[in-house]
Write a structure and sequence with these properties.
Chain lengths: 400, 400
């Protein structure tokens, strides 16, 4: 919710849908810039702001947008009511600033809907059993929307964003990128974990577990966006749905580590104790008793990780270690992979043909990721997008 | 609450008092400028903003200051908790944007105080029995503070303001104005109704009915301010406590009105129906059947009032009417008046000696007000201040 104009724009679209006979519940986030302003104010008060008080502060942001939204609706002659997280009773656990929704009471919203009102709910916030206000952390408002959709057994949950849907790859890198019409929850989860920012993992995961169809679409246009739904046959027709990249990781390799039980623990425990999240790990066995250990960490944690590894490498008796900040992770995602053989080998062939060396590989049932030199990122994305024909519309089942 | 610096300044003073062994409850208003910002945003959404949604919007302002305040306290190593009006349970009626407090639950605050916390409460807001957020309108945060002080049976309610107390008159007009150490609720009520802006009438009235001692003092200095308390003998020693003026009224006179029953109703009903508040009314009988009717209205309503009177004067058969926007109301206030004869006549003598004509006079038990030409305002205030020796300290009882 950027500003008053955007609030009015969304209000108009919601009213149009209401006038078509739909009962509408709207979940709003704070105006853009507000959260940063609050974080700045809090920082002026307390070095590490108290989480309970931080939630009290942050949750005031949605209070502003929901009341303004309700006013915009009323100005157009329709009825609306704004409700806070603790008024709806969006119950959460007590983990302030990153609480989890435990339960949502649908009664008040249902009652207001049945009175013909558009119900405008503050996203991102809830309330503990003791009556303290909590916030949900990243992706909070989307998660609230999905939780409400599930509790109210809504037909769908529409997520209005700055983009008009989920794309086969980043259109900034490859203009041939195509908006995906339909994608499965699992694919969306992979894309979200791989760095696609359009939806948060928690929101998709909640939608999957309650089977709430998500519609990711633009705030500014009326065109259909991307539906995130349960898997069906049609969606398996295409082996790959999207290509993603992530330049925010760094690689560290420890060479010639004595391959004894417990070595991995010795290496990764201190990293994890420092709060550093390791993404990919691969181990190449050199000989019966020596191995190379390669892993990736977030770029921002790289220096700290190298410091830790300097000590750890000595402890485990490794010969040497080295790191590389100029890497990128390229991934292809698609539920169709399960039924199409040779997807990984196509990927290898494409990259090899372009002279791109693959440093690491990991796979899941519906994903293949590989680490390459950062400078090849765009080339790799475009080549893979072409090779898997992602610019072409999905073919009807059977014509694949 | 102007800004983060001011929040920190007040937090430091509150902490000092807490460390001296006092249980402290702090009531805060929104940061200055916020209310205007919200009113502006609301105006962009709805021509006449919905009152229920306006309250939802406005009440977010204190949510920001109370959480920041609690952070500032915690940063200094003491414990604090911020509470909203609906968390405390500050019950109000349902008149959105100008609700009245009906009841305050002291339990939650008492429990938090007993846990050693400084309790930081959002002023200006409450909650209806149906769970809707309300705001209290003008003087709201001060009223909240007094209501809490009453419910908690507090020793006193300290009101931190931009000025360091209540003065014998406006120091901008007369530098000899002296800060009053103690004043009665009734005097303060008169001063507030006469235009002294330091305290709202509702707040003083509530303090009086629950006998809560008020201490009006500066946010920025440690010096004692003005105590507003029950009347005692000492306070009756001085006949006059203060001189006030109000330039925001205008006079209207209807001449030679036939003096028949119902004439006053014919004149004042349409004025009142237009939402115009008439302050002073005097009636001079010219003869057995003709009378002159003079009254004052707020300056901002003058043009509308004249329009109404143009019609009304014809209807009641008056000979003519005229008005004057360049007037001022000068008042002297003091509980001591009851026991000191001749206060009014001293006032008349002083003004007459300066050649100031008195147009209208009204009196109450502890007040004399008169309307004069606006240009004499400052002269009248200074002369009366001198005549009643308001620049001198209160004398001990018996030495008067």
């Amino acid at each position: 919710m950027a500003n008053p104009d955007k609030i009015r724009a969304v209000a108009e679209r919601v009213m149009k849908m209401a006038q078509q006979g739909n009962q509408m519940v709207v979940v709003l986030s704070a105006m853009s810039g507000e959260t940063n302003r609050f974080v700045d104010l809090a920082g002026q008060m307390q070095q590490i702001p108290d989480p309970r008080e931080m939630d009290m502060l942050l949750s005031s942001g949605e209070q502003v947008t929901i009341s303004l939204f309700a006013m915009a609706v009323k100005n157009a002659g329709l009825d609306a009511i704004s409700l806070l997280g603790d008024q709806v009773k969006i119950h959460t656990n007590t983990r302030h600033t990153k609480a989890r929704i435990t339960n949502v009471d649908p009664e008040l919203i249902t009652a207001q809907l049945n009175m013909g009102k558009i119900v405008v709910v503050a996203g991102f916030q809830g309330v503990t059993d003791d009556g303290h206000i909590t916030t949900l952390g990243r992706g909070g408002s989307d998660t609230t929307a999905v939780a409400l959709a599930a509790a109210l057994k809504a037909d769908a949950c529409e997520i209005f964003t700055d983009v008009d849907g989920v794309y086969t790859t980043d259109p900034n890198i490859y203009p041939k990128a195509r908006k995906i019409d339909k994608i499965t929850y699992d694919e969306m989860l992979e894309l979200a974990s791989l760095g696609a920012k359009v939806l948060d993992i928690r929101c998709v995961s909640l939608a999957k577990s309650h089977n709430v169809p998500l519609h990711v679409r633009s705030t500014f246009t009326d065109t259909e966006g991307t539906w995130v739904v349960e898997e069906n046959e049609e969606m398996e027709a295409l082996p790959v749905s999207g290509v993603t990249y992530n330049k925010n990781e760094a690689r560290i390799t420890i060479s010639k580590v004595p391959d004894t039980p417990g070595t991995a623990t010795q290496i990764f425990s201190p990293i994890s104790d420092a709060g550093i999240i390791v993404d990919m790990i691969i181990q190449n066995t050199r000989s019966s008793d020596l191995t190379d250990m390669t892993f990736t960490v977030p770029l921002t944690d790289y220096d700290q990780a190298i410091e830790i590894i300097t000590d750890v490498a000595k402890e485990v008796g490794a010969e040497s270690f080295n790191g590389d900040k100029d890497i990128a992770k390229i991934s292809i995602v698609g539920v169709g992979m399960r039924n199409h053989a040779g997807i990984a080998s196509t990927l290898f062939k494409v990259l090899s043909k372009e002279g791109i060396n693959i440093m690491m590989i990991t796979t899941s049932e519906i994903k293949v990721s590989c680490v390459i030199a950062e400078k090849y990122t765009e080339l790799a994305v475009r080549s893979l997008h072409d090779a898997f024909e992602l610019d072409k519309d999905v073919l009807p089942v059977g014509e694949q």
